[in-house]
Automatic annotation (TrEMBL):
<keyword id="KW-0067">ATP-binding</keyword>
<feature type="binding site">
    <location>
        <position position="117"/>
    </location>
    <ligand>
        <name>L-histidine</name>
    </ligand>
</feature>
<dbReference type="GO" id="GO:0005737">
    <property type="term" value="C:cytoplasm"/>
</dbReference>
<dbReference type="InterPro" id="IPR006195">
    <property type="entry name" value="aa-tRNA-synth_II"/>
</dbReference>
<dbReference type="InterPro" id="IPR041715">
    <property type="entry name" value="HisRS-like_core"/>
</dbReference>
<dbReference type="GO" id="GO:0006427">
    <property type="term" value="P:histidyl-tRNA aminoacylation"/>
</dbReference>
<dbReference type="InterPro" id="IPR045864">
    <property type="entry name" value="aa-tRNA-synth_II/BPL/LPL"/>
</dbReference>
<keyword id="KW-0963">Cytoplasm</keyword>
<protein>
    <recommendedName>
        <fullName>Histidine--tRNA ligase</fullName>
        <ecNumber>6.1.1.21</ecNumber>
    </recommendedName>
</protein>
<feature type="binding site">
    <location>
        <begin position="310"/>
        <end position="311"/>
    </location>
    <ligand>
        <name>L-histidine</name>
    </ligand>
</feature>
<feature type="binding site">
    <location>
        <begin position="87"/>
        <end position="89"/>
    </location>
    <ligand>
        <name>L-histidine</name>
    </ligand>
</feature>
<dbReference type="Pfam" id="PF13393">
    <property type="entry name" value="tRNA-synt_His"/>
</dbReference>
<feature type="binding site">
    <location>
        <position position="306"/>
    </location>
    <ligand>
        <name>L-histidine</name>
    </ligand>
</feature>
<feature type="binding site">
    <location>
        <position position="135"/>
    </location>
    <ligand>
        <name>L-histidine</name>
    </ligand>
</feature>
<feature type="domain" description="Aminoacyl-transfer RNA synthetases class-II family profile">
    <location>
        <begin position="30"/>
        <end position="382"/>
    </location>
</feature>
<dbReference type="InterPro" id="IPR015807">
    <property type="entry name" value="His-tRNA-ligase"/>
</dbReference>
<keyword id="KW-0436">Ligase</keyword>
């Protein structure tokens, strides 16, 4: 007797997720809304592949020190290393450089698709997730950056999140100026400082000070080595972070708050030309934002640094401001659902001339979760097809003809393909498919030239009011007959009535 073959365990890889029809439909509706705003601003779609040559993507991932960390890579048959894209921006830079001669400048595009990170998965942290980006390549002025911020605000409003978000804006040039004034000289130390400041929302000022100094030990005992700055250097950087805190009586995000923050930043950069350029860019951006009426939705916030190393100027982040409970049951602000900034050096990796660029990326999965929490995600279960039941196996061709008529009229329809011996199981299948109706034609109906149509939506509603099973069977709620010749018209009317 041979040993039975061992079954393979059905396991989803860690850091990945399956999506149901309801989730796909809801996220699709959200993406359509975002797309409509992007197109209203004059952006056009472009699509790049999942794989790029590894050298094309570069080494820009946050929190990675090894050149091969954070990405999924393989070698093709000519031993060229390729990697799954970790964002949608680096592939755009390659696409623009490769098609430089034929593309309009500035080039305005949007892209949507999956990106991949070879990182340790955790709660809300996936190895595959979807992003939706918009970028302007070839525009150097602050007008392009201001437009990105305003477009993101309009996206949030269109998704029903008005009053529950803020677009936070900073400039990496200002931070570079402050770092110069504080005497932070080496690239390695600057990177450690950027990572520390980026943790402000998570660890607070106290935690950031530890990361700027010797280091920080978390609750599990794991130690993160700090930047090793002196007390004086740390004080300068803390003053920088606190420059965005409004004074008593000043409303956060108001013109008075913006002016006060810009003045404070100007006083912290010393004589740094880079820092001064950053301050002037912020002043220009907020002049444009205020003139367009977005002042209350777009805020100046010096704590925004963004993790990716390719940012060279203004950086932005969408923060949802409502409270949710974390895994520990604590009330916390929902936080970021997207971000971006200016990356003037990324395209120039492929061309000798400077190519300015700025863009924004929305985290689709995280934003969908936020919309679900606020009741703005939309439909959770798409309407299924009309199901033609098979009452007589020898009449399969007749049932298939009904399905063809419905499909030719643009109506979703299918013939039941399972075990047809049990009528109840056929109806249960249609229920599970969220079908709006089933069509029944037995021998009696066929002789009379009629069909029975069971409205499953009305049937569920009527059945809820009937407690007696016999009464339910006798009433046959939601069921009616129609001439066979009027099949399409009867179903069209039923679907219209269900709207």
């Amino acid at each position: 007797m041979t040993e039975k073959a061992k079954l393979i365990a059905a396991r989803l890889p860690r850091g990945f997720e399956d999506r149901s029809p309801g989730e796909i439909a809801a996220v699709g509706a959200m993406i359509d809304t975002i797309k409509s705003v992007y197109e209203r601003y004059g952006f056009d779609p472009v699509e790049t592949p999942l794989f790029e040559y590894t050298e094309t993507l570069g080494k820009f991932l946050p929190d990675t020190d090894r050149p091969n960390a954070g990405v999924f890579s393989l070698q093709d048959d000519d031993e060229q290393w390729m990697s799954l894209r970790y964002d949608l921006t680096a592939p755009l830079a390659r696409y623009f450089a490769e098609n430089f001669e034929t593309l309009p400048k500035p080039y305005r595009s949007y892209r949507q698709g999956y990106v991949f990170r070879n990182e340790k998965p955790g709660p809300g942290r996936f190895r595959q997730f979807m992003q939706f980006d918009a970028d302007t390549v070839g525009a150097a002025g602050p007008e392009a950056d201001a437009e990105m911020c305003m477009m993101m605000a309009d996206v949030m409003d269109a998704l029903g999140l008005a009053g529950q978000y803020v677009v936070r804006v900073n400039n990496r040039k200002v931070l570079d100026g402050v770092l110069d004034a504080a005497g932070v000289a080496t690239d390695a130390q600057k990177l450690t400082v950027l990572r520390a400041i980026d943790k402000l929302d998570k660890f607070g000022t106290t935690g950031v000070k530890l990361l700027l100094g010797a280091g920080r030990k978390d609750e599990s005992g794991d130690f993160t080595k700090g930047a090793g700055l002196s007390a004086e250097q740390i004080d300068t950087l803390v003053a920088y972070l606190e420059s965005g805190v409004p004074a008593a009586g000043v409303e956060k995000g108001s013109n008075a708050h913006v002016v006060a923050t810009i003045n404070a930043l100007a006083g912290l950069i010393g004589g740094s030309e880079t820092g001064l350029a950053g301050v002037q860019e912020l002043a220009s951006i907020f002049g444009l934002v205020s003139a367009a009426g977005f002042g209350g939705r777009v805020h100046l916030d010096p704590s925004v640094v963004r993790g990716l190393e390719y940012y060279t100027g203004p950086v932005f982040e969408i923060e949802l401001t409502f409270k949710v409970q974390n895994e520990k049951g604590q009330d916390v602000v929902f936080g970021s659902v997207g971000g971006g900034g200016r990356y003037d050096g990324l395209v120039s990796r492929f061309r000798r001339e400077p190519v300015p660029a700025t863009g924004f990326s929305v985290g689709v999965s995280r934003l969908a979760h936020a919309l679900k929490l606020t009741g703005n995600l939309g439909a959770t279960e798409p309407v299924g097809p009309v199901v033609v039941l098979v009452m007589d196996k020898d009449q399969t061709a007749s049932y298939q003809a009904m399905v063809a008529e419905l499909r030719n009229a643009g109506i979703r329809a299918e013939m039941f393909l399972g075990n047809t011996k049990n009528f109840g199981k056929q109806v249960a299948y249609a229920d599970k498919r969220n079908a709006p109706a089933v069509i029944i034609e037995g021998s009696q109906e066929r002789e009379q030239g009629i069909i029975q149509i069971k409205d499953l939506i009305a049937g569920k509603q009527a059945a809820a009011a009937i407690t007696d099973n016999a009464e339910w069977k006798a009433a046959r709620p939601g069921q009616f007959e129609a001439p066979r010749a009027d099949l399409v018209e009867a179903i069209k009317k039923l679907l219209a009535d269900q709207q």
